[in-house]
Design a protein that fits this description.
Layout (H helix, E strand, L loop, with lengths): L1 H20 L8 H20 L3 H22 L9
Helix pairs in contact: 1-2, 2-3
Length: 83
């Protein structure tokens, strides 16, 4: 079961990344940020259950940054700060 959740989480992170690389998504869009937040949260949960501390750190930070950017965007501010 963990393998299935890992695959889903990974695909949820990779799909929007590929979309940005191909010019189909903006890295500051709700879709990109939301899918990244969900995917990284799934992977963080799997890492916590499996006591994979480095992976947990990576995915937790990824999820928190995505959620922070979503919150900024929802408040009418730029999701991403440049410069």
């Amino acid at each position: 079961m963990y393998d299935v959740v890992q695959m889903i989480g990974s695909l949820l992170i990779l799909a929007p990344f590929v979309g940005v690389a191909l010019g189909r998504f903006s890295s500051g869009s709700y879709g990109y940020l939301g899918v990244n937040a969900v995917g990284s949260s799934l992977l963080a949960a799997v890492a916590l259950i499996g006591s994979q501390w480095g992976f947990l750190l990576l995915e937790t930070v990824w999820a928190l940054v995505s959620l922070y950017a979503l919150t900024r965007k929802a408040r009418g501010r730029p999701a991403l700060r440049n410069g």
